Amino acid sequence: MAKSMGKSNSILIVDDETVNIMALVDILRNDYTLYTERDGKNCLDTAARLQPDLILLDILMPEMNGFEVMENLQKDSRTKDIPIIFVTGLSQSDDEVRGFSLGAVDYISKPFSAQVVKMRVQHQMKILGLIREIQTLSVTDPLTGIGNRRYFNTLVHQEWERAKRNFTPISFMLLDIDDFKQFNDSFGHLNGDIALQSVAHIISSEITRSSDKIARWGGEEFAIILPDTDTTGARRVSENIRTAVENAEIPIDDGEVKHATVSIGIHTHIPERCDEYSASNFVSDADKALFRAKRTGKNRVCAFNDMGDNQQSL
Predict the structure, then answer these.
(1) Dist CA 17 CA 39 (whole Å)
(2) 61 φ/ψ angles, rounded to the nearest 5 degrees
(3) Quick check: is 220 catalytic?
(4) In Å, how far from its chain's centre is CA 25?
(5) What is the pLDDT of residue 4?
(6) Distance between CA 145 and CA 150 in Å, rounded?
(7) H/E segment holding residue 167
(8) pLDDT tens digits, 185-238
């Protein structure tokens, strides 16, 4: 397997003829990160492991032809959405129809025209960029720039299932800005937006692991998921966030600075495979802890695991 370094978009080139691989590499090497394989089996392994942005796939290969490779790629959740351009010397329309019916996005014919190869690849990369931009917008809160609730609902269930498979602790935090309605009434909604942005930035700066994720849960509420984190670890992160928000200065439009505080509810659980306790229960119990933090004075952290009515918690 060959690779060229330093480019953003990546392409996996699959062809059993070295001369064809060399020709495509020579055409594309200046613009993309390139990986190469010479048979279908290695293509499946490499595609699943590296998840390239695009696959250029030869049709006529021994043992497993391009059509069979594509069918297998589409059975794997890791590779089913990777666009595929068939590379072929076949000229029968039936072959093109079969390829498109399987989901190929385009064809490149042999012998190669450098201009055609570049244009067809560029076209697919532009489409891919637009798709990713739309996907990002659909899961991003436009005010704070962090994930939205739709994004987070999916993430919570994914991490819950992973914790269940690995029998590891998972922690969830719900955070609410105290007296936010009063802040809005006193300083206006534009300054309220500044406060939301400031708190989102503070939380993000306190989350240090790439696996830890934050989202705007709704209104003045934020959610944080901490995989592989027990109650002690979740409490430490929560206290760091609470203290950072309390000490932060929030600029408002008249040049003054204001302060805000947050209440945080946390919950930690180790899900079991036969456990009827669900991800929805998990989130609901963190919400109960947040309610208690608000009810008992605000500007504090409350763990559901410390509450007397909790079940099956750490």
Answers:
(1) 10
(2) -135, 150
(3) yes
(4) 30
(5) 45
(6) 14
(7) none
(8) 988 999 999 999 999 999 999 998 989 999 999 899 999 999 999 999 999 999
Count CB neighbours of 17 within 10 A. 13
Residue 5 is predicted with a pLDDT of 42
235, amino acid identity: R
Say which amino acid occupies 64: M
Give the type of residue at 190. L
* Ranges 92-96, 117-121, 203-207: which has the least confidence: 92-96
Closest CA to 41 of 9, 73, 74: 73
271-311, pLDDT tens digit by residue? 987 778 899 999 999 999 999 999 999 999 999 977 765 44
CA gap 241, 170 in Å, rounded: 18
Nearest residue to 13 via CA among 41, 48, 49, 52? 52
In angstroms, what is the C-alpha Rg of the chain?
A: 26
Confidence (pTM): 0.65
Q: Which of 68, 220, 256, 276 does the annotation list as catalytic?
A: 220
In this structure, the number of other CB atoms found within 10 A of the CB of residue 160 comes to 22
Question: How far apart, in Å, are the Cα atoms of 66 and each of 34, 71, 84, 107, 265?
Answer: 19, 9, 10, 12, 53
What CA dihedral angle connects 222, 314, 280 and 239, to 10 degrees?
A: 0
Q: For position 302, what pLDDT does the model report?
A: 96
